[in-house]
Amino acid sequence: MTLKNPQAPEYMTLQRPRADVATSQYGKAVDLAESYPGLIGKPLQINGKPVHSDNPDRYKQHGFHFNADNCIACHACESACSEKNHLAPHLAFRKVGFIEGGTYPDVLRLNISMACNHCNDPVCLKGCPTLAYTKYVEYGAVLQDPDICFGCGYCTWVCPYNAPQLDLTHGHVEKCNMCVDRLELGLKPACVSACLSNALDFGVIEDIPKGQKQAKLTIPGFPDPAITEPNIRFQQTKTLPNELTRCDNEPIRYYRDKPGDERYRIGPADTGGTKGWGLPKLRSREDPLVAFTLLSQGVVGAFLIWFLGTKSKGVGEAMTLANHPYSPLVLLFGLLALQTAGLVLSTLHLGKPQFCYRALNNLRHSWVSREILTTMAFYHLLLGYTLVTAFPTLISWLPRGLSTAIPELIGWGAIIFGPLGLYCMSQCYRIKARPFWDHPHVYGAFFSSALILGGMTVSLLFGIAEFAAGNPTGPLLRWLALPILMGLLLQGGSLVAHLRYLTRRGDEASVSRQLMCVTFGKTYTARYVSLGVLTSAVFAFSVMTLNGGWALVVWGTMTLLALVHEVVGRAIFYVAVVPTSHPGSFFFGNNVFATHARKGGLAGMPQVGVVPDLH
Q: In CATH terms, is domain 284-575 a member of 1.20.1630?
């Protein structure tokens, strides 16, 4: 049965299901009102106006069916999508990529056409801090509003399928909208209508289209469907080689242990590379986040060590206002300046920094929103504590007991929200679509950075203050070496555990391991060397009382080494990650070609589909 639309041919028109299937392969009811009462948003509107269709299947989950046996990579679906949505050449809501294998003359290519899969568990919706995403009961569409988006790109991190597209020229994300305006008219999406080879179809997700016999959840090159439960079904019956490689220069290969295995594993491609430093490749779009995370962690660690240290009797009293009237204020105002700089730098990661306040919109689901809330709470508590400490007259008019209690309460509040902010920051990187990050080493990396950078800062500042006052520096440095040593040991244990996890985890994690140990091999080894040097030196200070100016010179050198060690390590953290992804082609979706286009000036030609490195 066909919905009424006399102006369209049958191949463009939505078909009624041939079989009434109530439950999907994921065990979810196809009836969306029954499946997702907690996620469904407001009624669907198109161009700001409520709409309604006479489609009796309107409230059932719809999705795409892709027949890989038929796809000829003509890219008609891409073109139709781009034309319908008026996309710039550098954007594509639907992309056709391919993987290939075999040896000449028996070479076989598998084409994959992919757009947004309008998932049952849309991680983009849960991750987006601005609430730019909504899942609707109408067709199960997951729609995104670029006017609400402020361009953080977090949805592009968590989506396993490269569906959200970050438009650097406009500073926001856009993606496939399931052509809901066409669905309301009884028409299939533009990409499906344009398909020349009957490789794409669309309808109620568990209704196998006419002429197909399979509705598999995955094919080679497609990420694990368990991450988001995507609403796409596949047919792929042709015999494939046991090993397939990508043509987009990603160092990834797909292989199976024996012929006939359904699942292809993922491993690093044999690039024939040798260990290198990879220093030019340490720069990335995430540079503002390198600065933000390290500054935030260092500030939290420094305040934690100093505040708790002043509560201890003995050596810790050397850090109080009573012993050094100016050094604590220098520390507090310095930390406030560093945290301010970190927050400002974090906005440089946004496409629309003027809308940074929207980061708090999704506290219910998004760890990014929670990270910003807790970090801002710590920042304001640090500001309040600094002001009442530097200018006690601000609260001197209050009753004596209250004026004494307020600084303490503010300080302890900062002690709570600082580590809580680091925990939320760590949770932002526990992303299933990025196996390199999805490991507890993230907590170890972030909290160890807080102890190392914070401890080094406090030790150097008050060591200099003690030396200037004519006091021995050894006891204070020995005492403050302990939290730093704890941070170094925590980081060393995290690095070893992470490396073992990458080997054991396999798939994209193993590709990240090769990048880290080969492309950045010498730099990664140098990190272990610097970690050993720092640990040995700090341990020496923790067991021996070393006084004099030379001890401060050594400590200052260690602080500089620790800073370089942390910056390089954090840069590797961002550039070595290999996300689950949809294979690209020789040009579009090829990062190597994009880099070449930017360096050679081709990016200045819009038709190339590469924009200059604007962000």
A: yes
